[in-house]
Batch of 4 targets.
Target 1
Amino acid sequence: MVLSVDSIWFVYVVSTLFGLLLAALLWKHRHRTGAIPLLGNVLSGTLWSASLAGLELVDRPSLVSLLNGAVFLGVGLATLTLLVFTLTYTGRERYVTRRTLAALSIQPALITVLAAVNPAGLFFETTETGVETGVLFWIHLGYSYLMLALVTAMIVGFLFRTRSLYRGQSAALLVGTLVAWVANGVFVVGYVDFDTSPIGFVVTSVLYTVAILRYRLTDIVPVARDRVVDTVSDAIFVIDERDRVIDANPVGRSLLSAYDASPIGKSIGSLFADAPKLLESYHDLTATVESDGRELGVDGTYYDVSVTPIDDDRDRYIGWLVIVRDITERKRNEVRLRRQNERLERFADVVSHDLRNPLNVADGYLDLAREGDDPEPYLDEVDESLDRMEAIIEDVLALARHGADVTDPEPVSIADLAETAWETVDTGGATLRVASDATVLADGDRVTRLFENLFRNAVEHGTTTPASNAQQDAVEHGSTSPDSLTVEVGAIDATEDDGETGFYVADDGRGLPDGADVFEDGYTTNADGTGFGLSIVRGIAAAHGWTATATESEAGGARFEFTGVEATPDADNEAAPSASDRPESATDTTSS
């Protein structure tokens, strides 16, 4: 394509004037992030165009050399400022340091001097047929293309990884960058006989400016938004008016991956087709175009869900912003706090009632002892009251010590702990059968106490004949003696209890009272019992995060099950359904 000198000069002048107008517009918005390097790019392109326009009018060698230097100063600065702007836009502003800028400024300064001096014709050489470029020019061109390729790669990468909200901006930048490539390329390959590069850079600046004004590019600072959204610990979703998920941050995508590996573009109805409760909750939250929120529990995890309507520039509803925060730990803290408060209330009840009764009894017998001639019988009653108070105090302390959450469980053997506990309890002639040697994660000391209380309960409340004088508080509603009582400890396989593993303690005694909550604080079937034994058991289980239940054993006695127990990685849940089924694997221990 061949144009006249006047036409070429006119094109450069128009490009220069347009660049000045863009510069004025950008100066007006210079407070926005990235506007300053973009302003520098526009001014560099304007200098480039103005210098080329001047070269069309002058022929004095000194002026030509000066204008040649100005042309390549504009070229070098245009490349530099475009790179700086792209680094800022794509979130790499950490690389825009004084040292980096100083290093990048070497090439524009050097190329300006070389273009003006043109040593030994290495930059260009004038011949009868025109101007032939030299080796220094091609080195400069290679450097410029390298910078432009880097800019293009960063914008393309950002276009692919950015959220849909900013893709219009990224597309405008990409088109602008490609225009710069094309404008320079048609001149280098000789398609046109004048340098169209500055015109391309002006068009590039126009598209960048459109991105600023139309999409509020640098005011929104999309990369900053992306960083906040991508790094925040909450799940964030953007849902359109047709209930389709059109955007989500990494946490949100991970949350929805359980329902669909590629949730973007899917409707809420299809995502939660197999989760009707979640779908119902979503419809409840979005029933009205108002901000709302609620707490939801999903598979043992708790979330705080807030829903805010999204409006466009005309205040028309166009979708929802949904923020989901995991509050499971907060809920656990609330449960722990509630449990602590309940323990405090129990302590208050014990101090005000349970301890007051034996204290009043002891006080009364002391008065009788002072008034009577033979104080010995009364002192025996006082001693029993003091023993009663000591037992209550020990149980209260056990509730306090064993009720705190277990924070550092270790692998322990159920069989070893059961046998250790059996040796510390006066079980008379009862027999312990250990039907499993499963290993679980637990606090060994507390689980030992759990077994001790269960064994003591089995002997004292599962037989009619006490094993020792300390067992006179046994409840007599059966006919089993401690010599014939068998207590079995075994593992619960995952197939036995809705997929949950655990262990059990069962006996063949008289069983549990009908309709009674044996875990209730203070519950006992004997007036002399403290009623805290099984309450301590439940507290120890809760401290581990286990579920404790009481039911009837296969032999008609009591069976206490503990589920939600975490087995160690090397444990194979070696459960035995009963000792009678696997007598060769069970261990019998008989107290004498």
Note: The longest strand covers residues 301-311.
Target 2
Amino acid sequence: MRPPVPVPTLSRRAKLVLGAVAVLLVLFTVIGTLTNVYVDYLWFDETNYTQIFWTELQTRALLFAVAGVATGGAVAASIHLAYRFRPTFRPMSLEQQNLERYRQSLEPRRGLVLTAVAVVLGLFAGFTAQSSWQTWLTFRNSTDFGSTDPQFGIDISFFVFEYPFYRLLLGFGFAIVLLTLIGSVLTHYVFGGLRLQTPGQKLTAAARVQLSVLLGLFVALKAVAYWLDRYGLVYSDRGDVFTGASYTDVNALLVPKTILVFVAAICAIAFFANIFVRNFLLPAAALVLLLLSSVVIGVAYPAIVQQFVVRPSANEKEAPYIERAIEMTRQAYNLVDGDDVEYVNYAQETTGEAGEEVDPQVALAELRNDTETIPNARLLDPNVLSETFTARQQIRNWYGFPEKLDVDRYAVDGELRDYVVAVRELDSAGLSENQSTWINRHTVYTHGHGFVAAPANEVVGGSDGGEPNFTTGDLPVRGDIVPEQSRIYYGELIEDYSVVGAPEGTAPRESDLPEGGSDDRQINNTYDGEGGVSVGSFFRQLTFAINFRERNFLLSSAVNEESKVLYVRDPRERVEKAAPFLEVDGDPYPAVIDGRVTWILDGYTTSDSYPYAEQMQLGEAAADSLTGTGTTALPNETFNYIRNSVKATVDAYDGTVTLYEYDTEDPVLRTFMKAFPGVVQPKSEVSQELESHFRYPEDLFKVQRDILTRYHVDDPIAFYEGSDRWQVPTDPTQDVEADQPPYYILAQRPGDDEATFQLTSALNAFQRPNLSAFVSASSAPDTYGDIQVLQLPGNTPFLGPTQVQNSFEANDDIRRDLTLFDSDDSNSVFGNLLTLPIGDAGLLYVEPLYVESTGEGSFPLLQRVMVNFGGRIGYASTLAEALDQVFGAGIGEIATDSDGAPPTPDDDGDETPTPAPTDPADPTTPPDTGGTPATPGMEAAVQDINAALEALATAQQAGDFAGQGQALEDLQTAVDAYQAAQQAAGATPGG
């Protein structure tokens, strides 16, 4: 027999070294964790949101303790009982001899092993449970929805707030029972209570009792699970095209689930009875019954019904349940017909048979009457102009603008206009090497400065310039939207922390304003705002030195008793931290409110437990071709309920975070307001000026338009067949295959009396390029959130965005210019393709075309404007000229004039004539005077043309074919007379 191999052991010195290393690792981990928690607390204390900090911390600690103690305690108690009631004498067998070595090893250390098992399992359970702190808070503070689900007649709050918590408890119950069962079995086996390979009795009485109780508890929990499964049917995905309980779920699974509850209860009783009966045949038979029942009536029977009853006529069988899904999904996404969404049959009277274009005369009349939409047509694309803003308004290398600018509206001189806006932020990435020392990076270059705005429908210099008209800009800030406090200490580009503040009398060190002149000297400043955490004491300095891993907090003279540290400076991160129960929109935007630059953000309450509502992935639903380009992608979490319940603001100077309740009827928000009283301010606290800058949020709109592509259909059979489904078009101006983003425009919606700021999107027919609908959501305070859906005639193939873009690129003039622009020296850049409703006549597409040099420091300049209406293309240096090409000379000037008045007289006192047809091939096309003043003969011909057009329109409406023929003859005669008079005046027809 070979001698045993000696087990290598560590020397005492090695053990001491390893022990010291382990202690240091634990110490550093604990200190780092406590430091992070303390720095977090200081931030919450500075922002006055300590209630969030303490409530979350206490709730997490409570769940951690309860779950940890319950799990660790139950397992430890079960193992202890199994050990305590171990048999004193064990039959001799090879199995028991092999186990004896383990018993001898465990006996001296059983207390340590038992404690270690309990602690490890308790910690694991505690860490798992504490992440569900919001589930507990919403359960505890549940608020009724005031509406019930269609199957059980229970208030929706049960499914949204209570059902998830019951499922959480049930899951932990199963885990605890399963872990205790495993611990008991292993203990009984090791110490002889369970003998698998030993002849004779396999279980001792103590082992039988303990295992019977645990198995009975497990099966009892299964009965509870079956009962909850009944309510879980409202989340079923058995239906092919909808979510929620289907025909099979209601008629072939609901009752079996109830039956299984009683079968499982009987099985549990059988296991408990085994404590006294001392025979496993009864519980075994009950368990077999449960398994057979669950397979036959819980799986096989529903599958048979689904395959042989439902599928052959699914559209009819599922119709009532599809109606439920449509109704509940609309409720969940705030798209209820009549309340939240208005459907309008659009352009029905201006179109003829399939394939015909929009009636040009009706369109021309609407265009002439339009005094709101066309004058405000946005030519500046905020997604393109960041480099242009940087080139013209950066001022210093450490300033910068975000990759995506923003659109907002301001009333200047009594006129409401939309502007492309941005703030000149501190861009740490722009610092040069010598500017990147710790002193410079964190104490000198601490903030941005200034608000920049340019009217969205203007450029400077026309085709020779193409730059934005910066009506607000420069340093110091000048213009028509000038904030009283224009320093930007909190912004989207600021990533580093800053140390600000100094004792009175100390020379300012923060770079602030250019002094002027040619030497580029700076005027410095010392921060005096309320933001930041005081770092004056040695303890605070040590805390921040550990947190930021920077010794200069202890060594630098820039850190003094008056110093403050600014951190968590991104507006979106600040709101997420202050309100962890919200999902925050990915695009904050700045506005000047009460003389201060203020970041405005949208907060969403969401849930994944709304019954019958279609579930989506938030990140995927809110993604488009620009996601990640100056905007933040939302987390890809499952949800099926969303509300824009909170409007948040972050002061750009002192970082103050304010949350306002904006949807006063949202039960989810009201539930969290119970959990965190006083954190969200009532809607009445929103000032009128602030409310005037609220925008309907993009991410919510993208989610809703995706839902509308399917759930605009009322008929359940049509919904099932997908015959009237829509689709979000791909962005034709980008190289990536992604959804077209929605666009903010200032326009007059059909049926409205004036223009409103709104968020819009075109929708195509499913897997077709043709346009089917146009969706807009109002941002006006009086109509905020009202969604209008213009439904286009299904028998007329209106051009969709991709088709319009293709028509632009196929146009001879545009294609020639693109070839010229796309060269070694320059590149063409397509702007956003806007869709604008023109009264009741139809949709006008407008797209700016930019050109950017390939040289260093180049930036895009607006060079051309492309328009498309009813298939007619206009392409020119200005919007007015492009409209002239589509509708006739002079129309562009009338349409782009905000008051709708005809053109004013020129310098010679001659008045530009009212447009009239000139093209004999298309007598409905208005004339182009070529810039020649009108003569009496031309004016008389114009009057005859207008009279003939009115006669033609009257005859068309009356169905008078003879009258139409006569009107066309009169129209042709008048056109010939106009052309003759025009030639006599020295002008060439058509320009």
Note: Confidence is low (pLDDT under 50) at residues 349-356, 899-932, 987-991.
Target 3
Amino acid sequence: MIQANRLSLLFLGFLLSFSLQGQVTITGKVIEKGTGLPMPFANVFINNSTLGAASDDEGNFRIYGNIPDEFELVASFVGYKTISKTIQRKGRQAVYQNFDLEFIEDQLSEVALKAKRDKSWERNIRMFKEVFLAVPDDPYGRDIEILNPWVLDFESVKPDKGFKYTQATAQQALQVVNKALGYQIDFHLQDFRMLRNASRFFGQAYYKNLAPSDSTNGEQWKTNRELNYQNSTRHLMLSILLRNAERQGFELYLTKTESDFRVRTNDFTVELNESIIPLKLDSIYSRPLGNGSYRIFLPGRIEVHHLSKPWPNDYYTNIYHAISWMIAPGGYVDVDRNGTLLYPAQLVLSGYMGRQRMARSLPLDFVPDEGFAGFVEELKLFQARYKTLNALREKPWITLNKHYFHPGENLWLGGRMLYQNPIAQDSLSRVVYVEIWNDKLKQVHSAQFPIQEGLISGGIQLADSLPVGDYILRAYTRWGLNFPEKDRFEIPFPIIPEDQQVVFSENVEEDEFGDLVLNTLYEIQDSLNFRKALIHLSLADSYDNPVEADFHLSVLSGFVAPELSQALRLEKALDWKDEPLPDTFDSNLPFSIDYGISVAGRFSPDRKKDSKAQVITLVKGDLEDFGQVRSDSSGYFWATGLMGQDSISLAIAALDSKQQSLGSVSLIPFSRPIFRGSFSRIPFQTQSISDVRERLIDLEGDFVQLEEFVKEETREELRPDRNYAYGDPNQEVGEADLETKTWAEILGLLRFNLNTLKFRNYTFGEETGSPLLIIDGNSRPFLEKEEFREILLGYDPSQLKSIKVYYDNITNAAYGMAGYAGVMIIETKNGFRTGPEEGRRFNPAEFDVFSIPGFTSFKEFPIVPPKDQLLKNKPTLYWNPKAITQKGSLDFEVYVPLEVKKLWIKIEGLSEDGDPVYKLIPIEIGK
């Protein structure tokens, strides 16, 4: 039976995260407490780093460098109590902090201190050095020493509970010189305890680089620092985060509890899969905590083999490398993105890593150089994860047909998605959630609308019962909930009485057009029941070249205030794109991307022994759409890509080979985020309308409706000349290329990755499966990836007539989930063509059937009035949330009530170059 080394070290020296950030300046002043006199030559430093400075003659100090977002700032002076403060700079590039140092009254002279030392003290100092500096057989122990050991005092402590221990204290900083690593360290000891089989210490350390005596000396320090970083606790934890522990020379094993029924041996091959079980990195779960730190969950006592560190050991007779053991008493450890333990008490070490003392300690701002064979590059990518996440951010921006309302009115909204990386547009959300909240923080309306090519359009019928007051419209995407709250949109608006109108000041700031010029021409035509304004807009650059743009366009009656606050303009919203995530941000992205209406649920098998991981079948209505997803080991499943309005009937089940249900399904409701922060209000003034002969409010029934804005599509006959109901493809390869090019060249033209089965970068973050494959009219949805590749590559390209692909904005309700990963239509030269399967009827007997909310239906803004009726006066005369210029021009007609003498034309959008465009145009139309 072998004896393991029972000494474990709980090293509490490294407490704060050192996630490097931009260049920051820390300034302040050190004064004596009580007198207020400045203290020159005081040391001020960031704990466990090389960043520090001495105060000048006036007590002022200045530290400049890569400063972490959160750090411990320490001030010390001989004979005075050391003070430390935890600073959170919150992105600031300059920090000011003062220190008041208190004199220690009972200071003894160096001579007096030396005179007190006896044999007991000598015995304790030897033990102290073994715990604090280096274990007895560590070769680095020869090159490290304490220059002022006499400042140490020792005391034997017997607590009420627990074991007796020896405590060490120091009234001055320990001055440590490490000639092996090239550091002088001022260590301010806060706590030191030695027990029979464990020890720990804690304090603040200030590292100063020693001046090398020659170039050889400096190179040796560099080598020794990197050798001590390798195989350190910090190196191991970072390699676990980076999922490359094997490449970094670590093998991990889970140790089983020893049993009386089995005697452990010294043979590694015998113990493998008996007392130690190989541990894969995938089984070590880690998750970001959202502040630049991570939590690593350790499943038990872990044995670490340091394959790159030759080491004699008596634990195994046939292993010749270093071995360590680690256990997290709480089940997890928290580290920063450099792998540094934030709370070292969370981890107990023994074996090789338990030997690490001050002789092998490195400052937290030490980073290995390029000699770590790709490790540094992975480290940089990992530490810059916030940049990757930042590129995946999106935020809605919403504008309204007008900016105040009356109870019972129609509210029409338009908007667009803002993207930190516009290239990711088609791989991000296709659903926006919209809510209206009152000033009591109660939600009074909710809706969800499709995002089509980055644009938003919708409408909400305000309740007649809504009280007069201040309201906020909030908009967000499910994916956006993975990011800070500033990625949600809010626009305040008031609801006022019907006999009131808002007073508008026409002192509008200069229009936002940059170097662009907008010209407006209009013609007024009279008729018996209304007037018609024919309006022509043209947009050009400074050289009179036409410029394309898309607008949110509204025309209001002259009595309506067209704008209440310039802060609500699109130009202001675009400032969000200049606000990147802080480099301490991280997220495990718990919210998925909506590619259509989505459902989350959980499957529970009827028999306990059956797996919860099953294929889940979802059927919309009477087979209008269907799809299959997989539940995980807990039974959870997620499906997205459904289309439909208002209420959707959805049948869900896990079926066996005989189409019999294996259990029950329950849905998990989407928990909408609560309202946080302050309730914004817009200052405004109202005045009474003296003669209210009719309700001057916006109702959709006043005009003739041309068409519904969103309607349920019916399945179109699958015909190749109509591209099987999909319209024009995004990419197409014809016979000429198919007869001369290889599959690799063809797939390149189609921008299709055969490994991931994704088009370009679309459907990011989703296991979308295979695109919908249609071959000569035969639909092959939900193919396994290997099956998809086998079918596709089984064709000789020269025998094909065409390949057409669709990969952006696949929102056809007839194909829904089957098509949101994309569609590939193949026509062969000698194939057959079929129409849709007729007469299908779905039997939901084995399914759980649910009614889920679809997209919110609404009436498109009415455009044309009845010609034989007098046109009623109303606030909004025209609304088009998706106006697009053609060759720099836009023509439209506005029907105007006879009593309206003035119009406001409000244009807001983006030019083709992404520049904001805003224009408020008054039109006087006479008597």
Note: The radius of gyration is 36 Å.
Target 4
Amino acid sequence: MKTKYLYLFWFIALLPVMVLRDYTPNNELRYLSIIDEALRNGNFFTFTLDGEIYADKPPLSFWLMMAGKTLLGSHQMWFLSLLSFLPALVVLMVMEKWMRKEKSFAYQPDGLLMLMTGGFFLALTITIRMDMLMVMFITLSLYTFFKIYRGEGKKRDAYLFPLYVFLALFSKGPVGILVPLLSTLIFLLYRGKIRTWQQYWGWKSWLVLLLGCGIWFTGVYMEGGDAYLNNLLVHQTVGRGVNAFHHKSPFYYYAIAIWYLLAPWMFLCVGLIIAGVVRKKIQTETEKFFLTIILTTFVMLSLISSKLAVYLLPAIPFLIYLPAMLLDKFDEKNIWLRLSVAVPAVVFAVVLPAVFYIKGINEISYIAVPLVYAAAAVISLGGITVLYLLFREKALRKSIRVMTFTLLLTIFIAGLALPQLNPYMGWNTLCREAIRIAEEKGISEYYVYKISRPGSMDVFLGKEVIVASEEDILNDTLSGQLLLLPEKAVLNNSQIQSVISGKEQHKTGPYLIVVL
């Protein structure tokens, strides 16, 4: 199958999720709330969340989101999804272009298929975050560096390389510059060519970086003053790197995270890399560069105090494509290679029984809808097929391809079920119903109780919510108002049950809307 058809199949498989799903309350709605505040306040370089400084993220992704709302008149899921999907597509295309230049093995699409369905790469392709945008620029910068290193670069690459590095920094922060800087310098040192570092990190590169940062920091200072600039340069860099105030984890964090980051290819990829190192199969310049990127990124992120699984995303294309290159150097009938794919295939095979089991668990029984059953049947059948191919035909590559297409077809079918699942996953349905009731009753305020991070509801409601306390509810001080709360908050509190028992109630997913 031609590569362009694989890209098309991937896009179609992800399309229902990109169009039909609701925003996640914890992160995506928070970003949209930040965008709305910036547009209201006329800010361009500085951002706030509920009036408080939000210097966690650079502006590039926020600018794209702001442009979307300005052009379309409202936040649109399809547009915002493209802000992750298109960068992911570019990463795939760059890695494919890179591989097709490699003469040490006969090209196979396994790396492409595995990356398309690889754990967090797949998840971040359909999530509204700035991580994939940064990964795109990091991948472009590393590819451009390697072209120059191999003597294949053009004059423009001397400027494109630092431009990509700056845009990676401008997308997500310091990791955007640290990964290319450390990976390239360590690779040059490893290959005995460190004296050529100025060819890549000379005055042209630093001029581009300093000019870009100078414009950025000047804009920040003019809009937010010393306080915002200090938060950006000190609190968000030194604070996170040395003694994290968020997401602090031990040194070995990524040694655990890598196993689900690469699912379902974790055993195959990690096993091939380890075997490649031990058996000295990593021989070409490309393979050695990929290994350098993986190890450098892994160690660097492990040394940084603040850790999240998503931070390892820049290494995932190389964690998958290096094993894809090494696959040709091993016998695909090798029992250990086949077992590395068989383990996740067994998990696939038991998904359908697991969904039937979940139906009996009240907290998550909402998942058991017909389309989810259909998706579960597809993935279970695919898992059984993969096991047959692995142990009857001993066909590893065919198994990888069947598993890939099985996973994408499962995502497509499950994505069609999202309109039924959205009330349990986001707040759009809840807020639309709250607006309808408020207009019908002539109520102007929205009160919330026991809902985590409710401030971002203003994206849907068009105004700030008011957080109610238990005393407010029990003392009847909210009479005539609208209260939004989780149903379990009522079930777990007999006093609140007695207060609202005679009130008008509307159930939406796991939430209640009560007219007090």
Note: The chain has a mean pLDDT of 92.
